[in-house]
């Protein structure tokens, strides 16, 4: 019963829908017996008490429905915002994986060149392939080294 008010406090920054004005105070009807201690309330007083209780309950239910609707709208807005953020981050992660693959390929080529497996730029026998790769043009990968990084990339996704 009281738990409904706790989540509302954490969402106070959200756009508020103005609730209907509180019901006008009606004739004060207490749930306490009349001043004459030995008498029970008359049938008219009992009906008035029940009607007043029903009106207050209806007003409280309306306030609760309004708060629940606001809370639901806030949740839907949060879901929408977070879904957009998820898409942005997934795109960024994909781009970083792709860049990581390219960088791994560059490192593999440079380490092979240092080991003498891939000809150096000054060597005329195979320098054109290496020049294409270093200038950013795509060419078929040489050896199994560059394929390993891509295989691992697919496994991690």
UniProtKB/TrEMBL annotation:
It is found in: Nucleus. Pfam families: bZIP_2. GO terms for molecular function: DNA-binding transcription activator activity, RNA polymerase II-specific; RNA polymerase II transcription regulatory region sequence-specific DNA binding. Residues 72-106 form a coiled coil. Residues 51-105 form the BZIP domain. InterPro entries: bZIP, bZIP_sf. One of its GO terms (cellular component) is nucleus. Residues 1-61, 117-157 are annotated as: Disordered. Residues 1-11 have a biased composition (Basic and acidic residues). Keywords: Coiled coil, DNA-binding, Nucleus, Transcription, Transcription regulation. This is BZIP domain-containing protein. The lineage of its organism: Eukaryota, Fungi, Dikarya, Basidiomycota, Agaricomycotina.
